[in-house]
């Protein structure tokens, strides 16, 4: 993310929270100052977990396979079936290539399904009453001059309706496109 932009550091902060939660679960009571001794193990475990978004672990997506653990070294020593005239290395490479291609397709499907789920959840929470052209509204100010300044300015007129959730608002300095989540109805008494 970009430094000092809270919108771009959200993923990093979420990962830090996840890491802190895992460390809290692993570190014994009274040994919090030795957190760095547990960090490698916790990162290894977190990278081995399957992601809800992709359906695969980070290790599988980056390296094309899960990382070796003691039991996997014992179990993976089975021979890869060799087709006639093809070396075992080429056969294993081809098998891994096919597996990665199918993983990419599955990740795309899972990501699309996850995106649609999140979109439906988001859209479900954005509901009317919607605005019409000519309605008056207040607009939300993202970065006010001072933390105690007013967050809502207006009333301003809606000059154009782009969709149920996006509108063009006529401001004193020109026009601005605004989302319904950043607009509030102006009600006369």
Describe this structure in words.
This protein has about 190 residues and is of the alpha+beta class. It has helices spanning about 10-25, 35-50, 60-65, 70-75, 90-125, and strands at about 135-140, 150-160, 165-170, 175-180, 185. A five-stranded antiparallel beta sheet has the order 4-3-2-1-5, with no helix packed on it. β2 and β3 (about 165-170) form a beta hairpin. α1 packs across α2 (about 35-50). It is elongated. The relative contact order is 0.07.
Q: Strand pairing plus helix content: what structural class?
A: alpha+beta
What is the total tally of β strands?
5
Total DSSP helices: 5
Characterize the biggest β-sheet.
5 strands, antiparallel
H and E string = HHHHHEEEEE
Unreliable residue stretches: none
Ends distance: 45 Å
Strand order of the largest sheet: 4-3-2-1-5
Task: Sum up the overall morphology in one term.
Answer: elongated
Q: What's the quaternary structure here?
A: single chain
Percentage of residues in DSSP E strands? 15-25%
Radius of gyration: 26 Å
The share of residues in helices is 40-55%
Overall average residue pLDDT: 78
């Amino acid at each position: 993310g970009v430094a000092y932009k809270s919108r771009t550091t959200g993923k990093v902060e979420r990962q830090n929270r996840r890491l802190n939660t895992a460390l809290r679960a692993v570190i014994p009571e009274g040994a919090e100052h030795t957190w760095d001794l547990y960090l490698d193990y916790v990162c290894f475990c977190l990278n081995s977990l399957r992601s809800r978004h992709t359906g695969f672990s980070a290790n599988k997506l980056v390296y094309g396979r899960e990382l070796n653990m003691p039991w996997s070294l014992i179990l993976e020593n089975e021979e890869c079936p060799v087709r006639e005239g093809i070396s075992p290395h080429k056969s294993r490479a081809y098998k891994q290539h096919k597996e990665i291609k199918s993983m990419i397709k599955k990740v795309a499907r899972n990501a699309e399904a996850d995106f649609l789920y999140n979109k439906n959840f988001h859209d479900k929470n954005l509901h009317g009453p919607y605005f019409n052209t000519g309605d008056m509204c207040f607009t939300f100010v993202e970065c006010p001059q001072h933390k105690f300044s007013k967050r809502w300015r207006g009333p301003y007129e809606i000059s154009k309706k782009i969709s149920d959730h996006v509108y063009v608002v006529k401001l004193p300095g020109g026009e601005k496109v605004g989302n319904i989540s950043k607009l509030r109805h102006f009600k006369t008494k």
